[in-house]
Design brief:
- This is Helix-hairpin-helix domain-containing protein.
- The chain has helices at residues 5-11, 19-27, 33-37, 41-52, 56-59, 61-76.
- The longest helix has 16 residues, at 61-76.
- By secondary structure, it is mainly alpha-helical.
- It has a single domain, classed as Orthogonal Bundle (DNA polymerase, domain 1), CATH 1.10.150.
- Helix content is 68%, strand content 0%.
Length: 78
């Protein structure tokens, strides 16, 4: 399932988080701020890298920062 419209709109306001980042979260089963708040940067970037068949997400400082910012935001919203 995708993020709720309200949650997605809030996430899109987070620095470095865009449509693609949210799409990747949803592809790996993270479809709510609650699930995101219980995830780690390493876990997410490793799984996305495996799905894409590329290490770009695992090695990209910008991808890591986007994921980190999204997780921090989701924790603050609890």
């Amino acid at each position: 399932m995708p993020f709720l419209k309200e949650e997605k709109e809030e996430l899109l306001k987070v620095k470095f988080v865009g449509e693609t980042v949210i799409k990747r979260f949803e592809q790996i089963g993270i479809d709510s701020l609650e699930k995101l708040s219980n995830s780690s940067v390493e876990e997410i970037t490793d799984i996305v890298s495996d799905i894409l068949g590329s290490s770009c997400w695992k090695n990209s400082p910008q991808a890591k920062k986007a994921v980190s910012n999204a997780i921090e935001f989701s924790i603050e919203k609890k």
